[in-house]
Design goal:
The complex is a heterodimer of chains A (395) and B (362). With 395 residues, chain A is of the alpha/beta class. Chain A has two domains: 184 residues, no CATH class; 155 residues, GMP Synthetase, Chain A, domain 3. Chain A contains twelve helices and 14 strands. In chain A, the strands form two sheets. In chain A, strands 1, 2, 3, 4, 5, 6, 7, 8 and 9 form a nine-stranded mixed β-sheet that branches. In chain A, strands 10, 11, 12, 13 and 14 form a five-stranded mixed β-sheet that branches. Chain B is mainly α and 362 residues long. Chain B has one domain: Amino acid/polyamine transporter I. In chain B, helix 3 runs antiparallel to helix 11, helix 5 runs antiparallel to helix 13 and helix 13 packs across helix 14. The chains are: A alpha/beta (395), B mainly alpha (362). At the A-B interface, helix 7 and helix 10 of A face helix 11 and helix 12 of B. Chain A: It comes from Cohnella nanjingensis. Chain A: Belongs to the GerABKC lipoprotein family.
């Protein structure tokens, strides 16, 4: 019954069988669902704009694969192509775009989802369902809020890389010199619904310099439910990044009165934030503990850091500065925008589920006068290459 | 002469049956109900299954050389025959519903343009071929596929470590232990398809160790599953995990390491190869069971006869009506599954025990 009992008979037939099975592998590369690389175009970014009459305008940035110059292509082709269409729903707009592009749009590699500020202020509730359902979307695309129409941002920007959205996503991923943290699609979507853990997204705005537009990723848009309610400045955005545990370093500068008008600059490293809720007699209080290590980056006047007094004074000033900016950010988020992007509610939920269940319904009122104690501990650990000893005078 | 399957082969068949098919059948129902407490449901599910395994082990040792279908008839006579019929029917229903899930999953996620019947047809062809050639071929396949599955699952878990937010798994038991205990019916009913071991036991080289092998396989499988579920929840958050159909798929889309992305391929490898083993084992169990029930000489004709049901499973009437499908997997499947896996086996066990006592008294 088993063929291997007679190894040499019908060897040819067995080889034929084997080869035909291997051949099947080539043919069966996905049945109907197979996508040939020449039939599809990779979507690098999706832009969503508000259109009149409560409609939506969708634009897609498509990668136009260019051959290397050595392979014979002169590089005349545009590095990317843009298509835009309006519709009542995202789906309708996408159908229109398909007609323009005449190819299969391949979404799973998209990097950026750009939402226009005006649309975000109008509310994006009706459009999120598409992203929840569509399995073709990339859950790792970054959300950015465009201060000008998203279509223009995608069309006009010039970056070092051919496809601007790839440059942006690399920048967000590296977090080097980037104070505006943002969320991936898969984190952004659920947070739009979570009253104790609201969504935010970094902004992107043009910085014009003689005709060509460079885009800067800065500031942070705060969402309340499905609506954008306001912006955090760069400094507040940096603090939000710390509080979210998303960024662990940052810059802080302040003036020392007796050292002239120019500020001293510190770089903060290894920032760790602990957010601890506590419940006492049905009142919730939070302790925010921040620990970091500071390095002196530049100072106009010479500072004697070997002097214990000076050092202590500096550390005190630094801690006060950090505490102030953290308190300011919390104040802005909780009072002014009344939206829990920091996740106070979720922290309460995780530690005191019963309290949370009671407070959930009126969480926004609770948020407006939340009791938050901020404590900061920042030792100055390293001061760069320069030696700051006493008695060293310029010659 | 029939070849026997070794302990390790048996272990792997059970492990694969527990930890593959269930990646997409359990979480859809369990996660929205038990959320971060699902580990308790999984533990209870595994415990129930180990109980059933003990019963089957005892019965198999009591009636050596007989399968589940045969000894239920020996013990209970005509009622036993009816039970045997129910078992075979149950195997068929499990395959049809799991096949339906399989096709649905593949056509919603990976290949939206391919008609579901293509998946069911190819799967039926492959599993039918394995079942046709008997248990030894399935066991041999299980041996290397399970190594594949085990290493792929470990990789999946390792790659997710960087993205884990363990505080997402807090607070424990926010709605009490109730939801987690109620949720245990899903893992219990899906793990319970391992009653197919009742069909395998006569072929074991070493039936004395059935229980030990089975229990450790279920524990390992349930452990791997639970860790994967918890990891996926710690990555995407319990809120999102409970709002989407296939949280594990989402999880595999999200985890990435350096420039490696799209680990969903790894998950597909686990799912498709594991499902293949599970289906073939059940298929074999159903075909052999039917042959024993109707006194047919060989199970092979039953393999051919059943194929049509499996191929047609994505075309079942009403099955594409989301509310019926939901009701089936949410209510009916766990209810009937547990009644058959736990209830009927216990009945047979009690009857056999009573019979044993009576015989001894004489």
């Amino acid at each position: 019954m088993h063929t291997w009992k007679r190894p040499y008979s019908r060897l040819g037939l067995r080889l034929l069988k084997g080869f035909s099975l291997l051949f099947l592998l080539l043919v069966m590369s996905g049945c109907w669902g197979q996508k040939n690389i020449d039939q599809l175009t990779v979507v690098a970014a999706i832009g969503l704009d508000a259109a009149p009459d409560d409609r939506i305008e969708m634009s897609v940035q498509l990668v136009n694969p260019t051959l290397p110059v050595a392979a014979g292509a002169g590089g005349q082709r545009r590095p990317f192509a843009m298509y835009a269409a309006e519709g009542d729903t995202i789906f309708e707009a996408m159908e229109q775009i398909r007609k323009q592009a005449k190819k299969n749009l391949f979404f799973p590699q998209s990097r950026i989802i750009l939402i226009e500020e005006e649309l975000a202020r109008r509310g994006i509730e009706e459009y999120t369902d598409f992203f929840w359902r569509d399995t073709q979307q990339n859950p790792l695309s970054w959300i950015l809020i465009s201060k000008q129409p998203a279509r223009d941002t995608l069309q006009k920007s010039k970056e070092l890389e051919d496809v601007p959205s790839e440059e942006w996503s690399d920048f967000i991923k590296n977090r080097r010199g980037n104070s505006s943290v943002t969320l991936e699609l898969y984190k952004f979507l659920p947070r739009l619904d979570q009253v104790g853990f609201q969504a935010y997204a970094a902004g992107i705005a043009p910085v014009s310099k003689g005709g060509e537009e460079t885009m800067a990723i800065r500031e942070i848009a705060v969402f309340k439910q499905h609506k954008l309610v306001g912006w955090l400045t760069d400094r507040q955005a940096q603090v939000l990044g710390w509080l979210q545990g998303k960024s662990h370093n940052g810059m802080i500068q302040f003036e020392l009165q007796d050292r002239g008008p120019k500020p001293v600059v510190f770089e903060l490293k290894q920032i760790k934030v602990r957010l601890v809720p506590s419940v006492y007699r049905n009142r919730v209080a939070y302790r925010v503990g921040i620990r970091a290590k500071a390095e002196l980056k530049s100072s106009v006047k010479s500072l004697d850091l070997t002097d214990v007094q000076t050092n202590r004074l500096l550390e005190k000033k630094l801690a006060a500065q950090i505490r102030e900016s953290v308190e300011q950010t919390i104040e802005r988020v909780c009072r002014t925008y009344n939206s829990d992007v920091i996740g106070f509610g979720e922290a309460l939920h995780q530690s005191y589920p019963r309290q949370w269940k009671r407070m959930k319904k009126r969480w926004n009122e609770e948020l407006a006068d939340l009791d938050v104690q901020v404590s900061v501990s920042v030792p100055i650990i390293k001061t760069g290459l320069k030696s700051d000893q006493r008695g060293l005078q310029p010659e | 002469m029939k070849r026997k399957i070794s302990d390790l082969q048996f272990f792997f068949i059970i492990f694969v049956s527990v930890a593959s098919l269930t990646y997409f059948s359990i979480p859809t129902q369990l996660v929205p109900k038990a959320r971060q407490d699902l580990w308790l449901s999984m533990a209870i599910g595994a415990a129930v299954d180990i109980y059933v395994a003990y019963i089957l082990h005892w019965l198999g040792r009591k009636y050596p050389g007989q399968s589940l279908i045969q000894y239920s008839r020996t013990v209970l006579g005509p009622i036993g025959t009816l039970f045997g019929f129910i078992f075979v029917l149950f195997f068929l229903i499990v395959i049809v519903s799991a096949m339906w899930l399989f096709c649905k999953f593949l056509s919603t996620t990976l290949m939206p343009d391919t008609p579901g019947i293509i998946f069911s047809a190819t799967m039926t062809l492959a599993t039918g071929w394995a079942a046709y050639h008997g248990l030894e071929s399935i066991a041999r396949l299980a041996q290397f596929i399970s190594v594949l599955i085990l290493s792929a699952s470990v990789l999946l878990i390792l790659f997710s470590i960087r993205e884990l937010n363990l505080h997402y798994l807090l607070p424990p038991f926010e709605n009490g232990v109730g939801p987690a205990i109620k949720g245990a019916v899903y893992p219990a009913s899906w793990f319970g398809i391992c009653i197919v071991i009742g069909m395998l036991m006569p072929h074991l080289a070493n039936p004395k160790r059935t229980f030990k092998m089975k229990a450790s396989a279920v524990l390992l499988g349930a452990f791997v599953m639970t860790v994967t579920f918890l990891c996926s929840m710690a990555v995407i958050g319990p809120y999102m995990a409970s709002r989407i159909d296939y949280p594990i798929y989402m999880f595999s889309r999200i985890i990435h390491l350096a420039f490696f992305e799209r680990f969903d391929i790894l998950l597909m490898l686990i799912y498709i190869s594991g499902t293949f083993i599970t289906f073939s084992t059940l298929y074999y169990g159903a075909a052999v069971g039917a042959a024993q029930l109707f006194g047919t000489r060989t199970h092979r004709n039953w393999v051919k006869a059943f194929a049509i049901f499996f191929v047609a499973s994505p075309l079942l009437p009403f099955s594409n009506n989301a509310s019926y499908a939901f009701l089936f997997f949410d209510k009916w499947f766990p209810l009937f599954g547990l009644l058959i896996e736990g209830g009927i086996t216990t009945l047979i066990f009690v009857a056999a025990l009573a019979k044993d006592r009576i015989e001894r008294r004489r």
